[in-house]
Amino acid sequence: MTTTQPIEYPPAPRTTARWITTIAVAALAWVALYSHLTEIADALVAALGLSRATHFGEAVHFFLYDTPKVLLLLTGIVFLMGVVQTFFAPERTRALLSGRRLGVGNAMAASLGIVTPFCSCSAVPLFIGFLSAGVPLGVTFSFLIAAPMVNEVALALLFGLFGWKVAALYLGLGLLVAIVAGLVIGKLKMERHLEDWVRAIHAGEAAAHTGERLSWVQRFEAGRDHVREIVAKVWPYVLAGIALGAGIHGYVPEDFMASIMGRDAWWAVPAAVVLGVPMYTNAAGIIPIVEALIGKGAALGTVLAFMMAVIALSAPEMIILRKVLKPRLIATFAGVVASGILLVGYVFNLVL
Amino acid sequence: MKNVKVLGTGCANCKNTVKLIEEVARAKGVEIALEKVEDIQAIMSYKIMATPGVVIDGQVVHTGGVPARSKVEGWL
């Protein structure tokens, strides 16, 4: 991929009133478009002279319906998250968590993990920052696990493609895994498995941080920048995923997947987790494929377990964490999270 | 001459921050000593919580994400 251009800022700063007008107009257009997706796809397929009765026509319809739907949801949710995240700078999150006991602290940490902005290369500074402020190790882990496990992009897509029940179950189980994993790691008292230099910092004082006061205009601008950053990065994966999904939807026979990825195959969930770890990809690219696979008889839990393993247990993240954690603690972390994902996979397969 | 350090382990945001600072310095004709700090222990000695971070003459002025161009122009 080519390097991205630095973001250009408009010469005159926008006023709050102009932002609110722009957002209101955009929201109206969003709702109008979103509620007419089927009609638009029908009209486009007809205009192309295709029939949904054919494999190709059905595949094209899937693509033309899903692409705007997924991109609309992605833009909407990513913008909202960008604004919400301005309220939860890492320093503020640390302040909220420091001195919290296990239990309540774990639940708070897991929830904050979803709304606090940080990229995976900041995992180590965050980790050390938390510990040095007196956040217990188990609580810190709840945060670190929830952040990638409950992914905003994944949540948006699940909501759009499978409805609110599946999205809520994903959110709930993701939080549960993060809370329980943090509690387990806290109970195991694994502080001595931190690298020595980290423990040395642990004993030191945390620097006082003066947070910046943000105006609403700056928060909206952060939302816009978040959209530019995330949507610009993931749209090719989304399109590729939907195209592949469209192919599966149009051509693969019904129930073909049931035999290999169906809910009756008990080994499918662990196999999905094992397959997911070495991969590192975007939730945005996987979910359209997930939708198509499920339409062909794959079990949702199996596919979700795969997705969570890809996002939360990625090899690159482990390599970054190795700088602060000794192998025993890395292994415990991976083991506890993997068990959690297995549980989520089986629960989804049982319930749905 | 200002001493500018960019703290970061080498992700895309860190590289973009370095590029942005170089660009702004060139555009304004300001001489700076730009240094990239990649060693995690060295980064942590500045007690930041999110990378990339920017340090000017020993003072942390920015953390977490590529700074806005207007912000960089203000520093130099």
Automatic annotation (TrEMBL), chain B:
Q: Which domain of life is it from?
A: Bacteria
**Annotated coiled-coil segments of the chain:** none
Gene3D superfamilies tied to this protein: Glutaredoxin
Q: What is this protein called?
A: Thioredoxin family protein
What range(s) does the Thioredoxin-like fold domain occupy? 3-76
Q: Which SUPFAM superfamilies match?
A: Thioredoxin-like
Q: Which InterPro entries match?
A: Thioredoxin-like_fold (IPR012336), Thioredoxin-like_sf (IPR036249), THIRX-like_proc (IPR005243)
